[in-house]
């Protein structure tokens, strides 16, 4: 019984790591939303210390999660830069100013883009713009009630110093934003249902949102603390659910390791066979384009990168494969994904017309 729990520990660590990363970013953006869009409603020149302190903690967590992963890529470097700059602003200019607001708005957009790209499991190209926009919509919908609800909950406590009339005004402003944001949360779920991507969360979430919207609409002047707590708990559950889905967890005992991605302009599959100590990379490009100019795979863990030395084996027409595509196969000998932990897999395929197709994912090995 103990061994079963030991086997699951790496996956649990990966989910916790992903949750901290996503939650810290969303918390940071949510607090900025509250300070920028909701707090001005109360028309006071000060902000109570709890919100400012929470913003600093969230900025530190963003930096911490990047250090925890140990990755060195564009997304990680971007998060480090954003986290450092945001932390400097949070300490040097805690009170809102035009310069700090503009700076944080730019940083928020950068964080939102990196969060969407990091969560997207397909190819990052022009065809991925719409799915990425849908992801951004979903995150925006969660940020608004998370930051607004948490800020309103803190505002309702005695140390905020707000008068009842001010708290009422703040509550009404939050309710109008929260009701609108639920459309952003619900839309991606409906898209998934239309595509046939059914899951418990997709079937359950619309009912919860309808119930929450009804509750908010019945609360004309104030939102009870219990409702705010339920709202925040639901959003944290959504983040945990997304973190679980974004972390793959096949074992090295499953032979072979297999990863396949279908795109509009290129397909890719990567196999790692431990018994024969061999790796295989299959790529599909449009008919007549010819074999890739470059096909490379990089595996990295804790900052250590391993280049898989693929060599071309065969390629050309693939009558039993994907219509409109030719198939090209590469092989490499060696042992890969041979140590437990969280690996980052990156496959790059360059075609003769200058197109670059990049496939990335995180893989847990135990």
Distance between the termini: 17 Å
Mean pLDDT: 76
Oligomer: single chain
pLDDT < 50 stretches:
1-7, 248-255
Which strands sit side by side, in order, in the main sheet? 1-2-3-7-6
The ordered string of helix (H) and strand (E) elements is HHHHHHHHEEEEEEEEE
Name the helicity range. 40-55%
The coarse overall form would be elongated
Q: Please, how many domains?
A: 2
Brief write-up:
This protein is of the alpha+beta class. Helices cover about 55% and strands about 20% of the residues. The chain folds into two domains: about 1-245; about 255-365, Immunoglobulin-like, CATH 2.60.40.10.
Question: Your description of this structure?
Answer:
With 366 residues, this protein is of the alpha+beta class. It has two domains: 2-246; 257-365, Immunoglobulins (Immunoglobulin-like, Sandwich), CATH 2.60.40.10. It is built from eight helices and nine strands. It has helices at 2-38, 49-69, 74-92, 98-119, 129-155, 164-194, 200-218, 225-246; strands spanning 257-262, 267-273, 278-286, 294-301, 304-308, 311-317, 325-333, 341-350, 356-365. It has a five-stranded antiparallel β-sheet, with no helix packed on it. It has a four-stranded antiparallel β-sheet with strand order 5-4-8-9. The longest helix is centred in the N-terminal third of the chain and has 37 residues, at 2-38.
